[in-house]
Amino acid sequence: MTKPTTKTVSKTKGTSKAAPKKSAAKTKSKTKTASAAKNLVIVESPAKAKTIKKYLGANYDVLASNGHIRDLPKSKLGIDVENGFTPTYINMTGKKDVLDKLKKAAAGAGNVYLATDPDREGEAISWHLAQILALDTADKNRITFNEITKTGINNGMQNPRAIDLDLVDAQQARRVFDRLVGYKISPFLWKKVKSGLSAGRVQSVAVRMICDREVEIRAFIPEEYWSLDALLSKLGTKDFAAKFHGIYGSKEKIKITNEDEANALLEALKSAQYSVDAVKTGTKTRQPAPPFITSTLQQEASRKLGFTSARTMRAAQSLYEGVEVDGVGTIGLITYMRTDSLRISEEARTEGTAYIGERYGTKYLPETPRYYKSKSNAQDAHEAVRPSTPSITPEQVKDNLASDQYKLYNLIWKRFIASLMSPCKLSTKAVDIKAAAEKDYVFKASGFTVEFDGFTVLYVEDNDDEEEGTALPDLKKDDVLSLKSLEPNQHFTQPPPRYTEATLIKALEENGIGRPSTYAPTISTIISREYVERDKKALLPTALGEVVTDLMKGNFSDIVDVDFTAKMETDLDKVEDGKLNWVKTVSDFYGGFEVVLETAEKNMDGVRVKVPEVETEEVCDLCGRNMVIKSGRFGKFLACPGYPECKSTKPIVTEMPGNCPKCGGKLLQKKSKNGNKFFGCGSYPTCDFMTWDEPTADACPDCGKTLFKRRGGLKVCNDEACGYQIAVEKKGKKAKKDE
């Protein structure tokens, strides 16, 4: 373990000092009895502070740091490259009042405990707090809570430890890596492309993956193929489907590549006699998915709920920190949500198992408890994401939760309970059907029936919702079948799909890029930087993203190389485990990086890369040129490509459903000067109608005009003479017209 090297600068006083070695609070405590002063617990979040305070009681004060309290300066590199990559930290802007309050409370406290989040980042925040509050990092003043419940808090308070300097080293190495890459490459991009761009150790790889996928899609050449789909029946049973396979007696499937081949087979099968040639039955067992880790939670919330990764983590954070539950009090409903471990506590297993036995019966419990194995590169610092108190069902807390909180808790709870349940058992049937003609052919049909639903009575992972095949009738060898229809269908092979947030997170995890805490901010960053944009759920590279990626691949190939970045993540894990020295790890990287940077500057001297402009069909009113899409402070807009001779601009508008209630014209979505979304008539300035309420496709039943969606769960008619409004239907409840 190496002691972290750092310089600490007080932004308010402008002085520098080395980290103290002894705890001021500890020195004070020698002159006070334990009962003379309250103990102080410092967490990151005010919401978490409020929850924990209720459990700890009157002998404790619980205060929040409101996240990070120190960081590298934004105005300069802040790393002394020549002297062991020593970072210089400053107190963050706007933190003076918080720090003054913490210092005052620590000075008068009996003991000070640092209870920031239980991960690398949280460990670093505790270390920074120790520096500022003059606490000894060797003292047992660090506590962690995997869950904000009575049990979780008691366990944390009973097991204080010293700050883990290996964890701090790992976080510090990550911060230094990211600062060196960002602050060294970004100015290069400003000079070669445009100002305001940024590069990042993880974000640049993520953008490259999206760009590479787009290149694959553009280069893809679809291939034609055909299928023959038969609808067959046995006397007295339901029709069933079968697919053409090939020549009878051959195991090889015939590939039908064009319409002529399909028609030739149709002609050959016109007079065929169909019969069952073979029936193979079996059983199949489907096991439940494991409880969530960070990546799978973000993926499933995207698929099932349509949440972005950032939205998922916001809701998860609030569920972890605590909510007020009727009859229970304030409690954290889930365990810590940044994890890559599938481990769960035996206490949670016992409670979940008891619920299953009581609610569904013992047949829904497996014969032996199921244990899931985490991936080999998992840090395994915390349990899986699970309900902290499994006996608290989603329906019990529904009225206490915001919509996003309820949806996510419902997902987490069901996934966890299902992971403890019996498997689903299926009876499978595979049938070979002989089509006897001049030349004999074979069709194949498959199906299944559910013998025991098991965990699927509660939860099915989204990508497992559909099994191939359907239930088949009772068929036996030599049964005669009648052909109801035989249809040829044309198909084309499809290119690889564009990444969605869910599939990108999965790819990042599989390739070892980033860690649980980085997935959501990485995606938010590449979208906000306009390297990537969303098209419904798909992530598409922008022209800017492709230009920057090509520039990075040509000059900084290692930075955007998946394997190289994955190795850096592995090295950071080794630093955390105390197996690598963080300074040497950074130094080994920087030596080669500095050479690459100098080479890039030399090779690109005097070169500036132009980002292609996206031309639209909108014509400039002043000069007649086709306008192009530009980006500005408040988002995208249309501009004349003739700038600076022609400075004409227009907003980009989106046509909405419905019609203007004043003149019947089109309704458009627009943006105000402050970037706020509003809706107005497309005939402006002839018609001045505008509203913040979103138009819907529904018409007012009283006057026939468009209804608008208003905050508060109402659809309203904006014609003041009408005044109709109705509650938006939610979760199957019947809407009622307000009187």
How would you describe this protein?
- The protein contains 18 helices and 30 strands.
- Strands 9-10-15-14-11-16 form a 6-stranded antiparallel barrel. Strands 1, 2, 5, 6 and 7 form a 5-stranded mixed sheet that branches. The protein has a 4-stranded antiparallel sheet with strand order 19-20-21-22, with no helix packed on it.
- It has 739 residues and is of the alpha+beta class.
- The chain has 6 domains: 7-163, Rossmann fold, CATH 3.40.50.140; 174-219 and 497-603, Topoisomerase I, domain 2 (Orthogonal Bundle), CATH 1.10.460; 224-287 and 424-492, Distorted Sandwich (Topoisomerase I, domain 3), CATH 2.70.20.10; 294-419, Topoisomerase I, domain 4 (Orthogonal Bundle), CATH 1.10.290.10; 613-652, no CATH class; 654-739, no CATH class.
- α9 packs antiparallel against α14 (501-510) and α10 crosses α13 (403-419).
Distance between the termini: 71 Å
Secondary-structure arrangement, i.e. CATH architecture of the largest domain: 3-Layer(aba) Sandwich
Spatial order of strands in the largest sheet = 9-10-15-14-11-16
Overall average residue pLDDT: 89
Helix percent reads 25-40%
Note the beta-strand portion: 15-25%
Query: What do we call the CATH topology of the largest domain?
Result: Rossmann fold
Shape: globular
Number of helices: 18
Helix- and strand-based class? Answer: alpha+beta
